[in-house]
Amino acid sequence: MSHAADLALVREYVQNENLVRHMLAVEAAVRAYARQSGADEDLWGSAGLLHDFDYERWPTAPDHPLQGSRILRGRGYPEEVIYAILSHADYLQDQFPRKSLLDKTLYACDELCGFITACALVRPERLQGLKASSVKKKLKQASFAAAVNRDDIARGVAELGVDLDAHIDFCIAAMLPIAAELGLEPAS
Length: 188
Fold this sequence. Notes:
Layout: H1 3-13, H2 17-37, H3 41-50, H4 63-74, H5 79-87, H6 101-121, H7 132-139, H8 150-160, H9 164-175
Helix pairs in contact: 1-3, 2-3, 2-6, 2-9, 3-5, 4-5, 5-6, 6-8, 6-9, 7-9
């Protein structure tokens, strides 16, 4: 599937623009990891972009992401994409443990991209100049972006086998080229 087809599917199911932006951010980070590892960038990009497309309609576990997986199967998406999306839900780990590099990358980028977005939104420069040290400071503040699960971020880094600082900086760099789409351009 193409990015345009994936985005059309997202737009069919999602009204909340912040959720769309989150999925675009995760897509950017996952695609960047695909490039780095020599993997199929379009395949990985699909997993990143579509990982939460069913969340608005079916926000409760296990409906999300099980409902979405049925839709994706019906539309002919590759099982590798569907499995990665299923494995990003911790409550489905007994059935869909994270095994592949794609599975682990999607999981490691999901919560972190959301947290990076929250960090950027409180800065006049937004993503520009945001560094891992600033993000890590905010991670220690339990009241900041309280809905973001810090344990998921730590688990994702451990499963992917990357350094937290490097992972944060990598995700920021991946998001920067689409800062306008993410609503994260510097405030004027």
